[in-house]
Amino acid sequence: MKMSGRLAQLDVWLLSGAAQQAKRLLCDELDRTGLRMQHYRVMAGLAELGECTQAELGRALELDAGNLVALLGDLERENAVTREPDPANRRRNLVRCTPQGRRLFRRMDEAVGRADETMFASFSAEERDQFHMLLARLVTEPG
Q: Over the stretch 115-129, which tens digit does the pLDDT of each residue have?
């Protein structure tokens, strides 16, 4: 994206353009796995949480229950996750990653890594670390 004048002076505008570029790279890489960014989000959540209830997963990922149900349905069709009633409370579902799901997550994780490397190829290791620290601060500290 080429910008000049006023837009090139606005950090928020530049960041928006960078976010669009990052999303495009990420989507292109994940398309090769047959899944989307939100599927990766769910699989990454399961990788961190392990077996958990569907509600716990939704809260941790800040995903609407309806969206999570649809994403889990997609992942079940890929044999990546299972949902079974919780023996302690039959009204809740336990979500588990399957061996196929772990393999799929590794492929997705590699795709995300490629997008990350492409996006930041022009940065030195020090610049990348500094950018990461600043970006993390932007998204974790209230404006």
A: 999 999 999 999 999
How is residue 123 annotated by DSSP?
Answer: S
Query: What is the distance, to the nearest Å, from the Cα of residue 119 to the centroid of all Cα atoms in its chain?
Result: 16
Tens digit of pLDDT for each residue in 23-81? Answer: 999 999 999 999 999 999 999 999 999 999 999 999 999 999 999 999 999 999 999 99
Instruction: Count CA atoms within 13 Å of residue 63 on its CB side.
Output: 23
Residues 26, 37: contact at Cβ < 8 Å?
Answer: yes
C-alpha 69/C-alpha 53 separation (Å) is 12
Q: Which residue has the tokens 């992942």?
A: 75
Maximum C-alpha span of the chain: 62
Strands (E) across the chain are located at: 52-53, 81-86, 89-97
Q: Quick one: how many helices (H) and strands (E) in the chain?
A: 7, 3
DSSP character at residue 100: H
Are residues 94 and 53 in contact, defined by beta-carbon separation less than 8 angstroms?
yes
